[in-house]
Amino acid sequence: MGNFVFAPLLHRRSKLIINGNTDETSMNSQSSTAEYKDYRVSYDVTSNIESYPWYDIKNRKKHKSQTNCIRTTRYNILTFIPKNLFEQFHRVANIYFAVLIGLNWVPMINALAKTVAFIPLTVILVITGVKDLVEDLKRWRSDAKINKQLTEVYDKTSRTFVQCKWQDLSVGSIVRIRADQTVPADILLLSSASYESTCYLDTAAIDGETNLKQKIIPSCFLNISKPEETKFELHCDQPNEDIYHFHGRITFSSDTNIYPCDNNNILLRGCVLRITDYVDGIIVYAGNQTKVIRSSKKTSSKHSRIEKYINRDVLCSSVILIFLCLLGAGLSLRLERSFGNKWIYIPFILDNPFQNAAGHFFTSALRFVILFQVMVPIALYVSLDIVRVLQMYRIGRDKNLKYDHSISCHTFTINEDLGQIGYIFSDKTGTLTQNELIFRAVSIGGVKYSNRSELPNEHDPLIHQFLTALAICNTSFMVHEQRELMYRLDYQPKYEGDNADDLVLCQAASDFGVRMISRSAKTIVVRYIDSTDTQKEDIEYEILCLLPFDSSRRRMSIIVRTNNKIYLYIKGAETSILPNLSDSNDQDLKTITEQHGMDFAEQGYRSLLVAYREISFEDFENWFEQYQNAANALDNHEEAIADAANRIETNLILAGLTAVEDKLQDGVPKAIATLRCAGIKIWLLTGDKQATALSTAQAASLINMAQKVHSDNDSLSSTSLSSSSSSSSQNNESVITAWDFSETAQAHLKQRTHMIYYKSQLNEMDQQSDTQHQATIDEIRTSETIARISQDITVQQLPVCLVVTGDDLSLILRYRPKEFIRVAGQCQSVILCRVSATQKRELVTIAKSVFEHRILAIGDGANDVGMIRRSHCGVAVRGREGSQAVAAGDFAVDRFECLLNLLLVHGAWCFTRTSELILYTFMHNCQFVLVIFYYQLFNAYSGTACLHSVYLVLYTSLFTVLPQCAAALFDEHISAERALREPELYQYTLNGKSYRKHSYWINIFDAIWQSTIIFFINYYSYQHQSNIDVLSFGFLLTFSMMTTSLLHVLIQTSRIDWSVVGSTILSFLVFIIFTLIYDDVCVACSPYENPYKVSYRTFRQGRFWFVNLFILITALLPRFTVKCVYNTIRNPLN
Amino acid sequence: MPGQGETEEDHEQQKSKKPADTAFKQQRLPAWQPIITANTALPVFLIIGLTFIPIGIVLVITSERVLEHDIDYTDTNCMSTTAANTTCAQALENANYTGQTCTCRINFALDKSFDGDVYFYYGLINYYQNHRRYVRSRDDNQLLGKEGAAASECQPFQKNSTGSGKDYAPCGAIANSKFNDTLSLLYGSENVSVTNLGIAWSTDKAVKFKNPDNASNYFSSTHDKPPNWKLSAWELDEPNPENNGYQNEDFIVWMRTAAMPTFRKLYRKLLRNSTFQNGLPKGDYTLVVTYNYPVTSFAGRKQFIISTTSWMGGKNPFLGWSYIAVGIVCMITFVVFFILHKTWKINNPFTYQMASIQNNQRITTT
């Protein structure tokens, strides 16, 4: 048997067991065992077994999880009903209803007709069930679609690759993936069509990064031409959700050596193969065990703040309910006992009130709870859910939010929060900007050029080197549409690639006459076209080494050989290259170039420094050896390569600087200006440097700075002016007046922004306090600086903008995060530069705990995901940086501009609509309960509802719910145009003015008034001629409540449109028709409640109509009066 | 130009993905956004005031025209004709409510003649016919003449559990406590002719209450009469089989339980013949009461009520006065708003000023 070797690993997830003996497991083809700490995949081609489908079926039965069939559905046909019911009864509301129904079955308590009491809960359960079913069907369909995709799998009997559905794959199968196909499962790379034994992957679907990733074949398979015909076994980690790490050991049955493999050899499910023709790989994790699916399962639920208000008011209502119940029960006991021992002669007292007083008290209290149950509007949570989904549906249909796609929504519980956003945390690149790069200028040898005609005619070696660097120092590749035309002078291949900067620079070089026309893994051909466009010269460069871009080095370089000379071309961030320049560089040139860099940054351009060097053969040989060692290193592969790269990237000769503009998205300046007027504070979090960030902020009208007049107001700035985004303040102002804003908003926008730079404050602090820079006192420095800034802000009259960079931020976050956020929260805007993804996330997390208002995070890239997830409301911009942010966001929009409509219009609407719905529900239910309570005063507190059970149950849940829901979908407290023109009206919802603490009590008082009018007018109008019976009186009350409640909605909504009127009429008709039919049919439906012909008789009385007219007007008069007084005196919306 | 054609097509395609641009789907249907201010509310108050006051006046006059005469015969008014110095109530109490009957005569005079249809009611005060247990203690199926055991709701008057074990017919507390005083009126010495037909809802009599087949056997042998009843249901109006058993109109009226603790129930209608052609003439009357129904144990009162009617029903000035009151309030509101409106017109309405924006700029942080 096997001699087991335990190899402790650093990896956190599992311990590996290396099984030296593969004989036993290799008897089974494609078997894998997933024991607790050992995950093995064995592959053996020789064992001859059943054909594929048959085997697969067997396998699926044995190890269900290991087929590649994914299942995201929650139910199947059998489990749907029990499981769904079980889940639904996790809701407090449903339990509340169920308990009350149960109590109603106790004969002593029974308050309603037993069967009727089931109706509301059943309806709720059915609606929610249907909703869940539909959602699950959707998931099932998408699963089926995914599972039925085709791929090629190696068939052992025919020894060829055959077509196969994804779901029929299983762990241990060998699959072939062709270019542009999606990887079906997590597979270990075995062979590749490319002779470099590598392949390129587009991982946008997984991590959102758009640059291609290179994956390599494990070293042990390099020399095996047909890996599908070898026997081997892989031991690796248990399935996990860590998409960045993988460790495994490969053992061949032919020898006993153990070969490592790691994350570089793994292709994850969902990636798309690029460039490489095809690759083969063995499935390691399949189906639901793949890393992507495991990692995507984490979903956090968000709750809107309005739910807090609801809970608070539900509590108040519960207190009122309990009070009413205890009062009723007490009075009931007292009254029945007041007759003394004569009770026995009293026809209407059937039980001995002197027996078991406590029991009597509690049963009658519980009976009142059933009777008054709607006082606590638990069904509100259900109607809220439905209304919110419909609200979202309506938002999705708004044409103003639609560019290429309509807004998509993943969270349906936070619509109202959109109306309460106090802070927006925004990413810059791709969010404010288009992430669509436009080449603007180059600075070569201290001279700026913006197009080819400006280049000097004579051959300048520096320009030559610069352009060559742009042309070849990149990872772009090209698609030849008409290869046969390559000989032509004006042949222009189409550049493809995943680094947008590379592409635009490569294209720029081509426009400047240095055109990369072919590229293979080994060589690059560059065509130099002379300034007259008449002659060409093709030079072939042999690629010796490519040192790719990584985010820590922030540069990339390429080493090429041409004409027996070796050159290194490098481009990267200024800070990453400047220290490595050789001393032989002209200091003036360096200064001028740096100055140009500043200029570019001020105009909001992104700049890259380009440099080169010539390397002697010996140097290269020496270095290349080191490099190859590093490249072959098994541990710390990347660091080793970076080290090696650093050794060659020295003594550089400065060539020049490029400037690329990332244009602001259309409408961003206006959007930001409007949001600022709305009182929303915008925090810009960017990875860019301060100057770029500031200029973008200025252009986006986030800040309004005193503009430095550019002396070189040349073509560069004029082009930027002509573009939609403006970069000068004069322009800014004219734009503001051009926007259709109210005067106050315009005045507000024209105010100059007072800038506070954290760094300079810190420095001043240091000078004043005369302390030395020591890490130990960082804490004190930070807190004192924050205090200083705080003082500064409080005395400042103008809007304030705080600027902080990433380095300072890390100190702040370490020592004084909350204080900082609190101080920064007072600023109009905050600009944070050089911020990492983690810092973004932390900032949002802390801000959430500090700020009173809701926080919205908007971003487009994978680095914004943390921030989007943590915020109250995460919005993803669909951009060029993959789908990860979109998957994480609560909403996904096409442009930043969408926020305008989303917040100022829909957010504000949703908040007012929902708060109206909530308040109305409380009011309306309270009115209903009080009417029933008043009746208790006149029936010996016995618990007679007087309303028929059907009305009692359906009144709040069916007859009156529709108009308010229509209002919750269609009401507009202000028109959309006005919301955008007068953004300051957002304050109305931002400060929650439509749902304040006292709103509840105002509505309760209104409910008391209405119920008093409804009950007592009916009572006294009929009392004197009181041959009226219980059912008729119940109908009177129901009718009055119906009409009052329906008309109440019409008075309460700020907009009366077809939907509200229509639903009001519909509700009324439903009520009348139901009543007429029921009263005609029901002769003996239940033993004691048969309203036969009651309504018909009631309608024939003149008194009935006069009473109702009176009640309708009198009950609504106070609200009408208060509303018109409020509107006249101090409505903020007028 | 093929290129352009293509882009146009693309454009078309994109368009089709957008929500249909119909008035309905884009919510451009007519809507009215009224801002109710004092100005717009002024006419509303005026209209309410101007309509409510006349309505109120009409209602009050209508109510005043209805004539009504109430006689409380609970205790001192109703002295036993057999035992001296004893009220009928005391007589019943002395007999411990074991079925003692007492008769009394009450003389009264009508100052005005009651013209037109005249209705006679008995009224009960402080009688909770709407008590939860009481209201349910009936079996509508039994009253429909259906076979089968009495419903459990009838408890504790479902069946004669101490005696024969038979179901009560009719069962339940409501039926058991049926009002059983006999009230008759003499005009001088002439009997006031009355009818006991047409006093219940016609639909009740036609549909909701049906005698079972073989009614006499049903009421006399298969079922017991309720414990408080002196006669079985089939003896309620023996001469008139249409008005007997469950279909007896006095019984049907009683079974329609009153909504309020002070209630009246229609007892008889005046039969307008000979002397009473035009209603009840004014003059002296005598009410003869056969006092069976005890109410003193719960401090109840019993009344005999003679009333005419109007299109609004019986006498009730409450609604009319309410109309007048609200009408006056609306008129006052109108005047106040009108004055305020005149004075405010000079000042612009308060708008959301810059000041409030700046206050809100420093959003409070906690």
Quick rundown:
The complex is a heterodimer of chains A (1134) and B (366). With 1134 residues, chain A is of the alpha+beta class.
Fold and architecture overview:
- The complex is a heterodimer of chains A (1134) and B (366).
- In chain A, strands 16-35-34-33-17-29-32-31-30 form a nine-stranded mixed β-sheet, with helices on both faces.
- Helix content of chain A is 45%, strand content 18%.
- The N and C termini of chain A lie far apart (87 Å).
- Chain A has 1134 residues and is an alpha+beta fold.
- In chain A, helix 3 (80-88) crosses helix 5 (119-147) and helix 17 packs parallel to helix 29 (898-936).
- Chain A folds into six domains: 70-148, no CATH class; 150-289, Distorted Sandwich (Calcium-transporting ATPase, cytoplasmic transduction domain A); 324-344 and 351-376; 423-432 and 666-704 and 747-759 and 775-893, 3-Layer(aba) Sandwich (Rossmann fold); 437-664, Calcium-transporting ATPase, cytoplasmic domain N (3-Layer(aba) Sandwich), CATH 3.40.1110; 906-1130, no CATH class.
- With 366 residues, chain B is an alpha+beta fold.
- Chain B has two domains: 38-54 and 320-364, no CATH class; 67-309, no CATH class.
- In chain B, 33% of the residues lie in helices and 17% in strands.
- Chain B contains eleven helices and twelve strands.
- Chain B has helices spanning 2-17, 38-65, 88-94, 132-136, 140-143, 173-176, 202-208, 215-222, 249-255, 318-344, 354-361; strands at 31-32, 68-72, 102-110, 114-115, 119-125, 182-187, 190-191, 194-195, 263-270, 279-280, 283-291, 301-307.
- Chain B has a five-stranded antiparallel β-sheet with strand order 2-12-5-9-8. Chain B has a four-stranded antiparallel β-sheet with strand order 3-11-6-7.
- In chain B, strand 6 and strand 7 form a beta hairpin.
- In chain B, helix 2 packs antiparallel against helix 10.
- Chain B is globular and about 85 Å long.
- At the A-B interface, helix 21, helix 34, helix 35, strand 36 and helix 38 of A face strand 1, helix 2, helix 4, helix 7 and strand 9 of B.
- Strand 36 of chain A pairs antiparallel with strand 1 (31-32) of chain B.
